[in-house]
Design brief:
The structure holds 2 protein chains of 2 kinds.
Chain A (H helix, E strand, L loop, with lengths): L19 E7 L2 E7 L5 H8 L18 E4 L2 E4 L12 E3 L11 H9 L8 H14 L5 H7 L11 H18 L1
Parallel strand pairs in A: 1-5
Antiparallel strand pairs in A: 1-2, 3-4, 3-5
Helix pairs in contact in A: 2-5
Chain B lengths: L1 E3 L9 E3 L4 H11 L3 E4 L3 H8 L7 E4 L9 E4 L2 E5 L11 H5 L1 H8 L4 H4 L4 H6 L5 H7 L3 E5 L4 E5 H6 L8 E8 L7 E8 L10 E9 L5 E9 L6 E2 L1 H7 L9 H11 L10 H25 L8
Parallel strand pairs in B: 2-4, 3-4
Antiparallel strand pairs in B: 5-6, 6-9, 7-8, 7-9, 10-11, 11-12, 12-13
Classes of the chains: A alpha+beta, B alpha+beta.
The complex binds flavin-adenine dinucleotide and FE2/S2 (inorganic) cluster (FES) (2 copies).
Flavin-adenine dinucleotide sits at the interface of chains B and A.
């Protein structure tokens, strides 16, 4: 069993106001929060911790605007409740930025992978997830990976080009 | 950093995180209808959003590691209820089961599949996997308040004694060893991008002997709001026959009669029945016309 989650193993950590003591790491920073156990991760991030990179659109797992990583796995922050992320490591789009912007962000800029930008943080998280498991995806792989991310502006052409440019460049580097 | 947030919702449920099946069952016994099991909670959240009342006690199964086990023994694939829909990406035993992988890939999108579970898909009662599991002769290992049972999924679905207190521990799926005398299919028809549930899902499995006589036929429909169902009368029309002997017109109309397809403002029940019959007949013919009749033989409906 994952010891990191023991904090809420015991239901008596719930106090009368039905809050839980939530410990989690977000973009390498540790937090200890007293929260409603069913508050959505996306609300926690945006409304309380001011991490507004992940966006909310559908609020129910259909559009991918809220995509983040939990322990390195792609998830919809609008479909996760606080009790489900206790002890976990969360990465938001803000966590990708180092000294320079991430290569996926760079590719989106170069290939015109966005217009209004509302879907972009979710797209980039999804693309990062895809490339981490499949560095040289086919167009079919790309479409399948993006099945849960909606964009109302681009028609997806620039997004797919951006991903293909990365896939190709990775192959070139490997050679 | 320590934060204290205001604005608690009045109906926040109590969250329980048992670490064993027994603890989970005890909690369910204690709170009865006021408690609900939650695995990935992806379906539950969709239902709450659509107005379903949240239970007062939520018994999360996520900490029960025994529910995550996947094993293959004596040609039976045992899939722990907490196995995620996305498990085909990294679990080698699931990866090897091609039809199961194909079905898993049709459910939701990758990020939802990373959270939603196979057990939740079955116990939610409307999951797209149910027709596949019906066709594949799946058995459920169910832990009830006082005892455990292993039950055929179809028997379970028809069992009117279900109390809602039962916990699904694992699903057992026979794995075919001789693929030359067996054929299975799974097809989902949906319009995912329009945010609607599947129009329908069909699945089937047939096996035949050395003379090409069908000796196992399982056909199932479901998906979306359609009640999952085995097409037992249609199965009888096929069982014991070779491809040559099958009356395809009768099979087609039997499917349309047996399938209680739902109707909504956009898609009629008749239309769904037709799609189901077309898909199932086409799949069966694709195999039976080639394996028992030689290539090029075309039946007309
Ligand atoms: C955006 C989106 C798209 C979706 N698309 C599809 C789709 O294409 N096809 C499809 O079939 N589904 C779809 N779903 C529904 C859902 O994601 C899946 O059915 C998923 O498999 C449910 O698993 P879960 O672990 O989240 O279940 P939960 O929500 O945790 O539980 C579902 C139900 O099963 C019960 N339950 C869960 N586990 C157990 C157990 N071990 N024992 C007893 N009872 C249990 C719960 O009490 C609850 O009633 C979608 C959901 C979303 C949000
Ligand atoms: S806001 Fe989370 S998927 Fe749409
Ligand atoms: S760039 Fe506007 S929604 Fe995608």
């Amino acid at each position: 069993m994952d010891m990191k989650n023991r904090v809420i193993d015991n239901p008596f950590t719930l106090n009368e106001g039905q809050t839980i003591a939530l410990k989690l790491t977000i973009n390498d920073e540790q937090y200890e929060l007293q929260v409603n156990p069913t508050i959505k991760l996306i609300n926690l991030l945006r409304d309380h911790l001011n991490l507004i990179g992940p966006k909310v659109s559908c609020g129910i797992g259909r559009c991918g605007a809220c995509s983040v990583f939990v322990d390195g796995v792609l998830v919809n922050a609008c479909l996760l409740m606080a009790y489900q992320v206790n002890g976990k490591h969360i990465t938001t789009i803000e966590g990708l930025v180092g000294v320079t912007i991430d290569e996926v962000q760079q590719a989106f800029l170069k290939e015109g992978g966005f217009q209004c930008g509302y879907c972009t943080s979710g797209m980039i998280m999804t693309v990062k997830s895809l490339l981490s498991t499949n560095p040289d995806p086919t167009e079919a792989d790309i479409k399948e990976a993006l099945a849960g991310n909606l964009c109302r502006c681009t028609g997806y052409g620039g997004i797919i080009r951006a991903i293909q440019s990365l896939a190709k460049s990775k192959v070139a580097v490997q050679e | 950093m320590v934060y204290q947030f205001d604005g608690l919702e009045p109906k926040t449920p109590f969250i329980w995180m048992p670490v064993t099946v027994e603890e989970a069952i005890d909690l369910k016994k204690q709170f009865g209808i006021e408690a609900e099991f939650a695995s990935g909670a992806t379906l539950l959240q969709l239902q709450w959003m659509n107005g379903r009342k949240m239970a007062q006690h939520l018994i999360s199964l996520e900490q029960i590691s025994s529910l995550k086990e996947v094993k293959l023994k004596n040609n039976v694939l045992s899939i722990g209820a907490l196995t995620t829909l996305g498990s085909y990406q990294n679990n080698s035993l699931i990866k090897e089961n091609v039809i199961l992988c194909n079905a898993l890939k049709t459910i939701a999108a990758p990020a939802v599949r990373n959270r939603g579970t196979i057990g939740g898909n079955v116990m939610g009662g409307i999951g797209d996997l149910i027709p596949l599991l019906l066709a594949m002769e799946a058995k459920l290992y169910i832990q009830g308040p006082n005892s455990s049972i292993i039950v055929d999924l179809w028997d379970w679905l028809q069992n009117k004694q279900i109390t809602g207190n039962e916990l699904l521990v694992k699903i057992e799926l026979p794995v075919e060893v001789n693929e030359k005398t067996c054929f299975s299919f799974y097809r989902k028809i949906g319009r995912r991008e329009t945010f609607t549930a599947a129009i329908l899902t069909v699945s089937g499995k047939i096996k035949w002997d050395e003379k090409g006589v069908l000796n196992i036929v399982r056909l199932a429909v479901g998906g979306g709001d359609n009640e999952p169902k085995r097409l037992e009368k249609t199965e009888q029309l096929l069982n014991g026959k070779t491809g040559e002997e099958i009356n395809w017109k009768a099979v087609y109309s039997s499917i349309t009669n047996e399938f209680n397809a739902v109707e909504d403002s956009f898609i009629s029940s008749e239309y769904r029945k037709k799609i189901a019959a077309n898909l199932i007949v086409a799949e069966l013919k694709s195999k039976l016309t080639i394996s028992s009749q030689g290539e090029g033989h075309i039946y007309e409906i």
